[in-house]
Each structure stands twice: as C-alpha cells, then as structure tokens.
Specification:
about 500 residues; 5-stranded mixed barrel; 15 helices; about 30% helix; elongated; disordered N terminus; RNA-binding
Length: about 500
RNA sequence: GAGAAUAUAGCUCAGUCGGUAGAGCAUCUGCCUUUUAAGCAGAGGGUCGAAGGUUCGAGUCCUUCUAUUCUCACCA
C-alpha cells in the first residue's frame, strides 16, 4: 500500500482531518527542516533513564546525563523554561536556559510542542522547590509530533495525586491505545505486569523441565473445548479451516509422542459474545504432564498462583472485583456436589434427570427441557454457587456428561477427575486427569456428535486422528488450562478483560 | 440478543422553557531567566455522531440509523 492510500477505500487518498493545531505542526515540521533542523534524525545516545536519575541523585554530586523522551508539560518563562520529559520508566523535569543552550537553539525549543520527542544532555540538580531535574546544556528534536495529545494536568494535594482533565473516554482509549499508554501511566504498569506474569509462568514451567511448544492455530477440525469457532478458508487447498478454540488435542498428541511435559501460551478464538470477561480472541496457557493426575495438578496450580502473585505484586493477596482475595495455599477444595449442598441446601447425589429438574425448578431456575442431568447440575452450580466463591476454591469431580475428554473418577461412577479454580466468582482454570482409554474416548466423542446432530452447536466433533494417536497409547496424564487474561485481571486488580488486552475487539470506526 | 445511558472545540465537560455556541486546559500573539494544574494581557478555534421530520426558528422536541459504555442474556 502506498503511504497516502486509504486502507478502507484503496485507491482513494486518505482523508486526514486537519484541524488548526495539526496544520500548524505540519508547517512547523517544514519550517524546522528548512532551517536545518532534522525533525526526524536517526539516533540519540541515551545514558540514563528518568527513574534511575531520581533514585540515585545526591545533593552535592551533579552528574552528566543524556535522556530522551516525550515532552509532557511545558512552562515557558521568557528566556528560560521548564518541561517534563517522559521516557520508558517515568518522568524527569528539564530546565532549559537561553544563556546555556544559545539563542538559536532556544528559538528552536520555543517552536516545540507537548508530544514532541527530544533528547537532552545536561547535569542533574535540584530546583528551589525541591524537584530533581536536569539542567540542559544541549537538546535536540528527535521526532516531531503532528497530533496534539490529550493533556492531563496533575497536582499533589497532601501527597495525593489529583489528575485534572484525564484522558478518560473509554472508546478512544481502546481505539488509540498508544495515546492511552502515553498519557495514563497506570495502563502501562498493568501491561508490564502482564508481561511479568507470563514470564513468571514460562520460567515456572520450563524450570520443571517441560517443553514450550507451538501447535496449529488453523485447524481442519476444531476441538478441545465446547465453543463455536471462527471459520476461514485456505485458497490453494480450497478447504475450510477453523481458528482453534483450544489446543488440548494437539498437546496430548505430543504426550503420545513421548514428551513428559508440554505447554503452550495459545491465542484461542471463540465466536461468542463479548463482555468484560470475554474477548473473541484470548490467551490460554495449556499444560500437560505425563504420569500425573488432577490431585497433583491442584497443588501445582496453588503454587503457580501464589508464586506469581508474590513475583509481580510482592504480596499474596489481591483486590479483585471489589473483594480482598488471599492466594496463600492451600485453596479450599469442594466437590461440585458438596458445593451445591452447601450453597443451595440440596443433595444432588444419586438423582436422576427428572428429580434434578424438579429440584432446579424449586430453586427458581427455568431450564431448557432438552438439557440432560449433567447440564442441569452445571446450571445450578453456575447460578447459585459460582458467584459466591470469592476466595480461591477448587471445585472438583464434575458430572461425566460435561467433560468428554476427562477420565472417569477412580471411585465415583458418573463423575470425572476434574477441577476448576474459581476466584472472585469467576473461573480461572480448568483441569483434569486426561482420558487415555481410546475405546472410551471414542464412545464419549461419538456421544458428543449425537448431541451435535440434535442441535448442540458446541458439542465436540469426532477427531479421528486424535483417536488414532490415543490408540498408540498415551501415558496417564494431567492437563491444565489457565485463562491468562483472567489471571492477569486477578493479579492486576482490573475489572475488565479489555484493560488487560492492548487492543480489545471493537467494531470498526 | 434485550434494556438503560452517552455522543457538543484537540482533551475534560456545561448548555435552563425551542430563540446569536459556552468554560477550563491545549493552540496562537505579547510580557516573563528556578517554574510545576506556572503567571499576566489579548486572540483564534464548532457540519453540536449521521439522516430525516415538527416548527417562523432545533444542540435542545419526534423518527430512523451508527458507535460506545454499563447491566442482563449467551458463553467452560
């Protein structure tokens, strides 16, 4: 695409709406170039970052530093000026005096705007009012900004930072995340933490000797979860493909192949509704470990969340959705049957579909007459129990109909060895002892495909190649899926998934 | 999918009963060599989300549409 082409309407020049401020900045860009100042030079030698200058400052020892960043505030006072420069780590005040930088350089400075990126060389000092600053000896323009950034002003009152005119339009913040990141420092911190959480998990897993792998996103048959997929088309092969809804079936093939532990940070895609807990594309880390079961996996998950919280927050408790949550192990464990007994006062064990349905009706739950007993239990749980589980809780031993890929419970017929981790009333993890009997797995998938024929769009499809892999023999195995976005929400205290994804899905402008 | 709210200057927001489009910040001009929501004096800046309608007259009332936000539904 040529630079001036309109992406929405190829062939047409792009309509850049020019307001007065942009016009002026464009003229300034030309004016600077004509007067011999390159508005976009190639490099600048940075020696210091704002945060380290401030931490290492000593009153009687000035230090020569080169810093670079974006101009965020300007206070011009005739022949001297102050401005704040924002670099990757924070802000530092710069003091610029005409006598020090020279007439022409000072004239150039006076043309600059908030939003321009500059480099400054100077020495550190503390102003009359006590702010650690850099006294500029040289400065240079590094990149001219053509669009005015939203200016939020800050004032400290009794140590409390008060922000005026903050850039707060949520739509604009999501659409122009780059601006959000420039002007709202907390946003940047959330994403730095997100990266730290992912790094921590990667280290936690590889430290055990498990292998990080990559498996297909474009799949001819989707599986591993109950969800509607996105479809796409491969032209050369002229075939329909699906964007993965999970990578479970591929990772298990790798366990068959002889790896003892594999994991993948997977972007998954589900063609479903959008709300503050769901984005159409989201990140899930899935982990499979041979010769282990779900009991073992629960201990691992406790450690994972506890250590991750300590690593990124230096603290084992968080505030999530308005609740104080402690991530100190052990987490409470409760079978789904016991949880319903506790929160609804009813005993669902050994009840048939008819009895369960009337119990649900007594609780005031309207149910689709087509759904079977496992799904009824899930509905009761989802409606009356899950929202009440604020502290981290493992809910275990789900009805077998809901879990076609999990192994039947070793001592409870009709249930599987499965757990979910719930915190703040929301599911964060799902895990089971993986079903590795290929004959039973085939039966379960075929039962799913019957549900599918009856109109359940989320029922799974029989994946013959996956079954073939199991027929070669898969060791006993524990599997885990962690919703990374939700885990980041929990550990950063964000109430919406949109605040932990840089570019959440929005309709086109 | 349903309901509620929102959409006015680059940003944050006022706009009363339908009668000339407002403020602060930002921008521009002038003054100002340790300021910090810098200050002082002046100036410019608007297709009031889009399209229809009612009316002598619509930012304001009505209809439709678009987008967003929140809640609910759906959703491992």
């Amino acid at each position: 695409m040529t630079p001036n082409e309109n992406p929405q309407n190829p062939g047409q020049p792009q309509q850049i709406s020019l307001n007065d401020q942009m016009k002026r900045r464009l003229e300034e860009r030309l004016h600077l170039a004509e007067s011999g100042v390159n508005p976009y030079p190639c490099h600048f030698d940075v020696t210091h970052f704002s945060d380290s200058i401030i931490t290492n400052f000593e009153d009687d020892a000035t230090e020569t530093v080169s810093v670079a960043g974006r101009i965020m505030t300007i206070r011009k006072m005739g022949k001297a000026s102050f401005f704040h420069l924002q670099d990757a780590n924070g802000r530092i005040q710069i003091y610029l005096k005409k006598d020090d930088v020279g007439e022409s350089s000072y004239q150039t400075f006076k043309l600059l705007d908030i939003g321009d990126i500059v480099g400054v060389k100077g020495y550190t000092f503390k102003t009359k009012t006590g702010e650690i600053s850099v006294h500029a000896q040289e400065f240079s323009l590094l990149s001219k900004s053509l669009r005015p950034i939203p200016i939020a002003k800050e004032k400290e009152i009794d140590g409390q930072k008060v922000v005026y005119d903050a850039f707060s339009d949520k739509e604009l913040r999501y659409r122009q995340r780059y601006v959000d990141l420039i002007v709202n420092p907390d946003v940047k911190q959330t994403f730095i933490k997100r990266s730290a959480i992912v790094s921590f998990m990667r280290g936690f897993f590889t430290g055990q000797g498990w292998l990080e792998v990559e498996t297909p996103i474009l799949q001819p048959i989707y599986g591993g979860a109950a969800a509607r997929p996105f479809t796409t088309h491969h032209n050369a092969l002229d075939m329909q493909l699906y964007l993965r809804i999970a990578n479970e079936l591929y990772l298990k093939r790798l366990i068959v192949g002889g790896f003892d532990g594999v994991f993948e940070f997977a972007k998954d895609f589900r063609n479903e509704g959008i709300d503050r807990f769901h984005n159409p594309e989201f990140t899930q880390v899935e982990l499979y470990v041979a010769y282990k079961d779900y009991e073992w996996m629960m201990k691992l998950v406790e450690e994972l969340f506890y250590q991750a919280a300590c690593a990124v927050n230096n603290c084992d408790s968080v505030v999530f959705l308005g609740n104080d949550i402690s991530l100190k192990p052990p987490f409470r464990r409760l079978t789904i049957t016991d949880s319903i007994k506790e929160y609804c006062g009813i005993d669902i064990s050994d009840k048939d579909e008819h009895e369960l349905r009337s119990m649900a009706r007594d609780l005031g739950l309207e149910l689709d007459p087509k759904i079977s007993s496992g799904k009824i239990i899930d509905e009761i749980f989802g409606e009356f129990v899950e929202p009440k589980l604020i502290q981290p809780t493992f809910i275990t031993d789900y009805p077998i109909e809901m879990s076609p890929l999990a192994k039947e419970h070793r001592s409870k017929p009709g249930f599987v060895e499965r757990f979910e981790l719930i915190a703040g009333g929301k599911e964060l993890c799902n895990s089971f002892s993986e079903l590795n009997d290929p004959v039973i797995q085939r039966e379960r998938l075929e039962a799913q495909s019957k549900l599918r024929q009856r109109g359940d769009e989320e029922a799974m499809i029989v994946d013959e190649d996956f079954l073939r892999a199991l027929e070669y023999g898969m060791p006993p195995c524990a599997g885990l899926g962690v919703g990374v976005d939700r885990m980041v929400m929990l550990l950063t205290g964000q109430d919406s998934i949109r605040d932990v994804i840089f570019f959440p899905h929005l309709k086109p402008e």
